[in-house]
Specification:
about 500 residues; alpha+beta; six-stranded mixed sheet; five-stranded antiparallel sheet; 8 helices
């Protein structure tokens, strides 16, 4: 039903209820005789002439146009609200502390929740009750109630308790009727969105049935016409009659499965609903964020917080270390600590990066950048060269052919593939503690007199000189022998 038709239906029902059916005086122009009870609502007039079409009303007498936003429709809505079509209910906040409501509804995965302050006020809402009828070859009737917050002009989803007749409670104070027209438009948009999927499903089913019916009728009559023409040379008249019958049956099928959607506003009521606003703080070791939330006395639960990345509701939000609130699917955590970042932080700041080797996510506290490739690596796949100190990824690590220890490729030189430490061996000084420790640990080397020595951050390389074969010994800082082997030459 279009907006203009809905307005006309509403106004006709209003006069039928209070003054009697509208009388058409001329095409498109109607007269309503007003009883004493209605005259005050229409500036004391005994009768009025109205039109729903702007092009109607060619006579000289005054005709009031009935349309959304018109002065006349505002008077009708105002009087209908006062005269019983528009009832008032009040839902007051209970004794449950706001902190308990927030704690029960807001369940962040990685943060504590605290309520800094909370205030409660009675907020006027308009509850529109619609009867919806979706018709094809079958009819579906449903009753839909839309509650619109007059502050924001948006629908508020509430519990079904608001839709019972028991809420028609008397109120001491009058309710301002301003904003009803805008709220009605918002309710219509919400109703359309709510019923769209059902209407689409019914329409598609009807179109499928109509298509099958049309194919069946067409095939039957085409075959009948061909049989008549083949059987008799003078069968043209009968064939034309069959053709006309076919068109009639096709029109019946189209009418039978034609989709019709209608919505009728049954009544409107004001609901004075207590709404609590609270400043809620989410906090963990890496971030702190305070957000405003609200809940109403009908639901006693906080609506899911929207994800600040994708906008979808997040029943169990995550507070990222950049201070954003996001859904679990829009955050990535470090594989080595509890640090998490949303996609906004990752795209803008590179807060979380995958290891170039194993693809595990790493945060800035655990990521190491390869000095040669400039690609990030996790702690399990980064190597700090004990000679030069640069950090490199696995692709840039090689072993010394002499001491067999891993170093970066810069510090291991061809053609012998020896590291810089092994290439820097010098004669050990008398009484060198490393030499003394090795002589004690390896009795076979106790009598060797000539030693060469070099060391780096991780190991000490000792070369015991023999007549033909030399003995290469590698020890760690604690003096433990890491490698012992025979080598030829220096």
């Amino acid at each position: 039903m279009t907006e203009a038709r809905a307005v006309e239906a509403f106004v006709r029902r209003y006069f039928e209820r209070h003054a009697g059916p509208l009388q058409e005086e001329e095409p498109g122009v109607y007269r309503a005789s007003l009883p004493e009870s209605l005259r005050s609502a229409f500036d004391g007039a005994h009768s009025i002439r109205i039109a729903f079409d702007p092009g109607a009303g060619g006579s000289a007498a005054r005709v009031d146009l009935v349309a959304v936003g018109s002065y006349f429709l505002d008077r009708v809505v105002e009087d209908a609200a006062r005269s019983g079509w528009h009832t008032v209910a009040r839902i007051e906040a209970g004794a449950t502390p706001p902190g308990d409501v927030v704690a029960a509804s807001l369940r962040p995965r990685n943060a504590t929740v605290s309520v800094a302050s909370a205030t409660t006020e009675s907020v006027p809402h308009l509850l529109f009750n619609f009867r919806v009828r979706l018709s094809t070859d079958e009819r579906v009737d449903r009753f839909e109630s839309i509650l619109v917050d007059l502050r924001t002009g948006k629908e508020r989803r509430v519990a079904a308790v608001l839709f019972g007749e028991g809420l028609s409670l008397p109120e001491d104070r009058a309710v301002d009727g301003a904003g009803i027209a805008d709220a009605y438009r918002a309710a219509c948009r919400a109703l359309e969105a709510r019923t769209e999927s059902a209407a689409k499903a019914i329409r598609e089913e009807a179109e499928s049935l109509q298509k099958a019916e049309v194919e069946r009728i067409t095939m039957y009559f085409d075959r009948s016409v061909n049989e008549v023409l083949d059987a008799r040379a003078d069968g043209g008249g009968e064939a034309r009659a069959l053709g006309q019958e076919r068109e009639r049956r096709l029109a019946e099928a189209e009418e039978k499965y034609r989709f019709v959607g209608e919505a009728e506003l049954c009544n409107v009521r004001t609901v004075l609903l207590d709404v609590t606003r609270a400043d809620v703080t989410l906090e963990h070791r890496g971030a702190r964020r305070t957000i405003p939330l609200e809940f109403d006395a009908a639901n006693l639960e906080v609506p899911p917080t929207p994800c600040e990345v994708c906008g979808a509701p997040a029943p169990e939000p995550v507070l990222c270390f950049g201070g954003h609130i996001a859904g679990p699917e829009c955050v990535t955590g470090c594989g080595f600590c509890d640090r998490v970042h949303c996609r906004t932080c990752i795209v803008a700041e590179g807060a979380i990066a995958p290891c170039a080797t194993c693809k595990r996510s790493v945060c800035p506290d655990h990521a190491e950048v390869c000095a040669l490739s400039r690609r990030p690596h996790c702690p399990d796949h980064i190597h700090a060269c004990a000679i030069c100190g640069r950090t490199v990824g696995p692709a840039y690590v090689t072993r010394c052919g002499s001491c067999e220890q891993p170093y970066c490729v810069v510090c291991v030189a061809p053609p012998a593939e020896r590291c810089l430490t092994c290439r820097s061996l010098e004669a050990a000084l008398p009484g060198d503690p490393s030499v003394a420790a090795v002589r004690k640990r390896i009795p076979a080397l106790a009598k060797v007199a000539k030693w060469r020595r070099a060391s780096n951050r991780r190991v000490t390389v000792l070369l015991a000189k023999g007549l033909v074969w030399n003995q290469l010994v590698v020890t760690d800082p604690a003096g433990t022998v890491v490698l012992h082997k025979k080598v030829l030459g220096a």
